[in-house]
Amino acid sequence: MNICFDTFGCRLNRAEALEDEARSIAKGHKIVASHSEADLVVVRGCSVTARAQRDCERLIEHIKSKYPAKRIFVTGCLPNAKKLDISAILRPRPGVAASEAPLPTRTARAYLKVQDGCSCGCTFCIVPKFRGKPVSLPFDDVVSKAKRFIDSGYCEIVLTGCNLMLYASNGRRLPELATAIASLSPGCRVRLGSVEPGPVAMELVHAMHENGNICRFLHLSVQSGSDNILAAMHRPYSAKDVDALANEAERLMPMIGLGCDLIAGFPGEMETDFRLTKGLLARHMFSNVHAFPFSERPGTLASAILRGKVLPDLRHARAHELADVGAECRRKFAKKFVGREVEVVVENESPISGWSSEYLWFEVQNPTACPIAGRISGPRRKQKMTFKVKSAHDGRLFGELYGNGR
Hints:
Elements: E1 2-7, H1 11-26, E2 30-31, E3 40-45, H2 50-66, E4 71-76, H3 86-89, E5 110-113, E6 115-116, H4 127-131, E7 135-136, H5 139-151, E8 156-160, E9 168-169, E10 172-173, H6 174-182, E11 189-192, H7 199-210, E12 217-223, H8 227-233, H9 239-252, E13 257-264, H10 271-283, E14 286-293, H11 301-304, H12 312-335, E15 341-349, E16 352-356, E17 361-364, E18 384-393, E19 396-403
Parallel strand pairs: 1-2, 1-3, 3-4, 5-8, 8-11, 12-13, 13-14, 17-19
Antiparallel strand pairs: 6-7, 9-10, 15-16, 15-18, 16-17, 18-19
């Protein structure tokens, strides 16, 4: 059977889709990119914003309209979505033995799901309705799978979850898990998904400092720099907590990359609240800012109860303003790396490019100029290589090969 996977949304959705692809291949089925070639189309949706949900639903309607005879399975975070069990809906092709827990191998970086679900009850969020209560994968099982990824040649493992800060397995949390995986191999680095400010995140910062192969990038689910808005969102931290976490990360790791998620125009957000959020960006060089206009999600407290709604045009204007501040921070941050060495896991071989530990995109300026020609045939996808940064443009790094890779 030919199967086409359409995946929307976060890294967790991507990790789950890759697992399903691997299971499908292990059963002898073929993954195709085109709907026209597929016997089955699996849409893994996202409802984090109204726009994301509309995009998913439009694609589903398009497929149904253009290919009325196609079999479509809708899963992920969407109304009426079903939990996908590839083993239940696909039988192995004749002559193909069922493989136990097949490993996704087609991406340059390994995506490892460690947790699902959330119980935080944020007033703007619809995701717990689809993901349910927090569930953590067993600690030893996660570490074992990470080792399998390393043994198969991966040089970066990305830890994903619905809310990574809720990971807990027999008293061990995310800092212990990240440390255990980092200790498996110094040649493989560990990248963390989005984390929520708080005591566990502070412990995580210290674990990053103590383990050089945990990527020097911390993406914080901040949402606002105003305590009034954070309280209205039911977020379990204050703006001072965000400052304290960012300050400690920057103190211990001066070249760390910081990212954040922000919501502009949340109900009740006054101009003074918005300025506080801009001030937070000014105090720290957030190099990866995801700024979204507030999106009413039916079924959430923010949509049903909260007063003081901000006009949509103002929400979008504020989101664009925050994004512009973030883009300028990214440009300044990238320029700090000119003349320095960076480690990059190669995503593409032509041109040679990939992500640095600090989550900056790097591209080789002159692929033919290789100072270690003869020692290696050239960087290969999935390899971790050392490069020298020669220039930075629009938040991206450019340079040349500097040292041998793993």
